[in-house]
Design a protein that fits this description.
With 140 residues, the protein is mainly α. Helix content is 82%, strand content 0%.
């Protein structure tokens, strides 16, 4: 993936990763679909395709674009924050209550990020405005 990111744009890498992933996972999905008696309407299928294709594709595109801006090492550190935001947003949006082990996991992730930043002397907010302006211009 690293060599592909050096040669191709994030859009090309996202397209081919999604294409090959869908190609190889479709037979497994069809096999599972045939073994379960699901009753999904056409609007349900459209929603599944939208969430699986459009939303996931855009998320991967933005993630790969971020990697191209800040490098894979820094991006790997902060990719763990997706777990923290998942827990926080499940409480805010869905009203779910966090268990004690969620809080422990939250603290472990934050501790790992702080330790990595201290060890590598990273300052993630140093150029955030420049990178955000670059992202806005890239999306336009």
């Amino acid at each position: 993936m690293a060599s592909a990111m050096k040669r191709f744009s994030p859009i090309v890498v996202t397209f081919f990763a999604s294409f090959w992933g869908a190609l190889f996972l479709t037979p497994v999905g069809l096999w599972n679909l045939s073994s379960v008696n699901w009753h999904i309407s056409w609007s349900g299928w459209l929603l599944i395709l939208y969430m699986g294709g459009i939303i996931t594709g855009c998320a991967n595109l933005l993630f790969l674009y971020g990697i191209s801006l800040i490098g894979s090492g820094k991006a790997a550190i902060f990719s763990n924050m997706s777990l923290v935001f998942g827990i926080l947003l499940s409480g805010v949006i869905l009203g779910e209550r966090s268990a004690w082990y969620d809080c422990i996991g939250f603290m472990l992730v934050l501790t790992g990020i702080v330790c990595s930043m201290l060890k590598n002397n990273l300052r993630p907010l140093r150029n955030i405005k420049v990178q955000f302006d670059h992202l806005v211009n890239y999306v336009k």
